[in-house]
Amino acid sequence: MRSRLQSARRLIVKVGSALVTNNGAGLDLGALQEWARQIAALRAEGREVLLVSSGAIAAGMQRLGWSTRPSAMHELQAAAAVGQMGLAQAYEGAFSQYGLACAQILLTHEDLADRTRYLNARSTLSTLMELGVVPVINENDTVVYDEIKFGDNDTLGALVANLTEADCLVILTDQSGLYTADPRKDPSATLISEGDADDGRFEAMAGGAGTGISRGGMITKVRAAKRAARSGADTVIASGREPDVLLRLVAGEALGSFLKAGNSPLAARKQWLADHLQLAGTLVLDEGAVKALHEGKSLLSIGVTEVQGQFERGAVVACRDAAGRELARGLINYSASETRRIARRPSADIEALLGYVDEPELIHRDNMVLA
């Protein structure tokens, strides 16, 4: 199963608070530099890497001289605001040593639940990767409420894997991986080297909460693996203190726990499109567009002859031929009113007609399933 890691082209790497802050002692600049070095090496191999980093609250606690994580919401948010400054500066310095630019992306789970904001985030991350920039993603702990109570960037890592259709989610932690029981309490506990992400037994094995620095624990990592698997991403839970852990994982070394997804990313996404979303509208296509779809190409605005219904960007719409036969359905990159304005016009005219270009395709083939 681990051979899938060797061919992975897009990876989400999540690092936990205990690693980022050396168990709360302050930002571990040496550790950040090591991850930057490994990510630079992965980039040199032609892989894309997005980094999801915890640590803002923990770094802020250290800067403010707090040894115990506060429970008051305004104090947590203040710690996040203070810590985020140092965290961003530290990553900028680490990646610049290897000739890489990085960008700070602050998200909430609401950003990924709202379809328009979801697509905006997806477009931004795609553009950054095309530009060769490493996205450094964190939860926007200065404004959220429920999420900050859980401190759960494991889930955020899984959501980013879903968002970007990543091949693998690598969760780096202060433990060697998933054990049959808590190895700190049970000396007979054994490491689970490989398994299925949907194996229901793993949640029982992982029970327990996080430390005083983080609020995750192994249970959130197992649940994140299940969530990542929904879009076909495998998950590895491994020790971030293992030398060259990222490079050794993609080389196929059996480190940590490998939790395999049941479907490929594209197959899972297309199954989701085909079975689980209601249609918000219909596009009627000309013969050229019908032929293009049968050839596996994306749908361009020039091939649309009619727009039916009212929908927003990111809605699921049907694509039909002139006789009314459904050919495909997919996520559309423009609203109904915008689609009507650019229908029958080439992609090169979109900016002049709308004042901006989000995507050159009306529906990208990766966001489309044929009927």
From TrEMBL:
<keyword id="KW-0028">Amino-acid biosynthesis</keyword>
<dbReference type="InterPro" id="IPR036393">
    <property type="entry name" value="AceGlu_kinase-like_sf"/>
</dbReference>
<dbReference type="InterPro" id="IPR001048">
    <property type="entry name" value="Asp/Glu/Uridylate_kinase"/>
</dbReference>
<dbReference type="Pfam" id="PF01472">
    <property type="entry name" value="PUA"/>
</dbReference>
<comment type="pathway">
    <text>Amino-acid biosynthesis; L-proline biosynthesis; L-glutamate 5-semialdehyde from L-glutamate: step 1/2.</text>
</comment>
<dbReference type="GO" id="GO:0005524">
    <property type="term" value="F:ATP binding"/>
</dbReference>
<dbReference type="GO" id="GO:0004349">
    <property type="term" value="F:glutamate 5-kinase activity"/>
</dbReference>
<feature type="binding site">
    <location>
        <begin position="173"/>
        <end position="174"/>
    </location>
    <ligand>
        <name>ATP</name>
    </ligand>
</feature>
<dbReference type="InterPro" id="IPR011529">
    <property type="entry name" value="Glu_5kinase"/>
</dbReference>
<dbReference type="InterPro" id="IPR019797">
    <property type="entry name" value="Glutamate_5-kinase_CS"/>
</dbReference>
<dbReference type="GO" id="GO:0005829">
    <property type="term" value="C:cytosol"/>
</dbReference>
<feature type="binding site">
    <location>
        <position position="153"/>
    </location>
    <ligand>
        <name>substrate</name>
    </ligand>
</feature>
<keyword id="KW-0067">ATP-binding</keyword>
<feature type="binding site">
    <location>
        <position position="14"/>
    </location>
    <ligand>
        <name>ATP</name>
    </ligand>
</feature>
<comment type="similarity">
    <text>Belongs to the glutamate 5-kinase family.</text>
</comment>
<dbReference type="InterPro" id="IPR036974">
    <property type="entry name" value="PUA_sf"/>
</dbReference>
<dbReference type="InterPro" id="IPR005715">
    <property type="entry name" value="Glu_5kinase/COase_Synthase"/>
</dbReference>
<dbReference type="GO" id="GO:0055129">
    <property type="term" value="P:L-proline biosynthetic process"/>
</dbReference>
<comment type="function">
    <text>Catalyzes the transfer of a phosphate group to glutamate to form L-glutamate 5-phosphate.</text>
</comment>
<feature type="binding site">
    <location>
        <position position="141"/>
    </location>
    <ligand>
        <name>substrate</name>
    </ligand>
</feature>
<dbReference type="InterPro" id="IPR001057">
    <property type="entry name" value="Glu/AcGlu_kinase"/>
</dbReference>
<keyword id="KW-0808">Transferase</keyword>
<dbReference type="Pfam" id="PF00696">
    <property type="entry name" value="AA_kinase"/>
</dbReference>
<keyword id="KW-0963">Cytoplasm</keyword>
<feature type="binding site">
    <location>
        <position position="54"/>
    </location>
    <ligand>
        <name>substrate</name>
    </ligand>
</feature>
<keyword id="KW-0547">Nucleotide-binding</keyword>
<dbReference type="InterPro" id="IPR041739">
    <property type="entry name" value="G5K_ProB"/>
</dbReference>
<dbReference type="InterPro" id="IPR015947">
    <property type="entry name" value="PUA-like_sf"/>
</dbReference>
<feature type="domain" description="PUA">
    <location>
        <begin position="281"/>
        <end position="363"/>
    </location>
</feature>
<dbReference type="InterPro" id="IPR002478">
    <property type="entry name" value="PUA"/>
</dbReference>
<dbReference type="GO" id="GO:0003723">
    <property type="term" value="F:RNA binding"/>
</dbReference>
<keyword id="KW-0641">Proline biosynthesis</keyword>
<keyword id="KW-0418">Kinase</keyword>
<protein>
    <recommendedName>
        <fullName>Glutamate 5-kinase</fullName>
        <ecNumber>2.7.2.11</ecNumber>
    </recommendedName>
</protein>
